[in-house]
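fyi for ur records
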Amino acid sequence: MVPVRTAGPADDAWATRTVSADAPVHLAHTLAPLRRGPGDPCHQITPDGAHWHTSRMPTGPVTYRLVQDDPVTVTADAWGAGTAEFLDGLDRMLCLDEKVDDFVAIHPTVAAAHQRHPGLRMLRTGRVLEALVPAILEQKVTIVSAHAAWRRLLHSFGSPPPGPAPEGMRVPPDAATWSRIPSWGFHRANVGPQRWQTVVRAARVADSLERTVALPPGEAARRLRTIPGIGEWTAAETAQRAFGDADALSVGDFHLASIVGWTLLGRDMDDAEMINYLEPVRPHRYRTIRLLEISGQARKPRFGPRASVTDHRWH
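which gave:
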């Protein structure tokens, strides 16, 4: 266990840990999927380049601050009752143990991105509900609307973070709180019945969901899909963050297949074509998508105006 040096109340217990890898780790690229849009109450990047995040570990809430010391080293400071548990699992969360020797690039653009960004790691937070709820909120709505809903819900039902967190940060609600949020609470956040009912259903079986981290990622995702309202896309988005699944392809995404097609083949592509095209890169299909994203090469021509954000809160 990582020793915790108490500095004040129990909620402000503090400790630090530095981890090193045998190969490069790019902290910003690795942590990017944790951030749910600008102003995410659970994730902030401060001007000094530090990444702040809040989470709710089984042992309690935690605020942590991660900084890149050098290409292979990351230091974490953490505060709160969940400090020791979080720091114990830091190397696992950053997937410092993953091997990519079997990665085969299917296109020169992917090969170049893999060569330029050797520090990209997957994420294995082990916190299933924290990854699942925002993914549910992102179902079948614009990403702007989903991020706004996440901010409203966290500010209304989240809790103050332990330690010296930047202003405006909140700790995500626990499962009991998510399950008790009234319909009007979701309505005020512009979350429709189908999505909030799925959130509540998931929260009510949260203990079972959290145990899926011990399963192979494919089986864990299958169990997620047994909950009504959680399909392949939502399970993949959760697996990418909670399970460290480098193969979790977000099939059903409104833009993804087209982006893959236009970026790599210069034409549009549907989900079936994307699945077939990416088959040779298993078990690294999601890694391939992330490489396209961070390389700046991902593109999709715009053929019309952006979709408008519909506000249902006043209906």
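The chain has two domains: 10-116, 128-242. thats all i got for now
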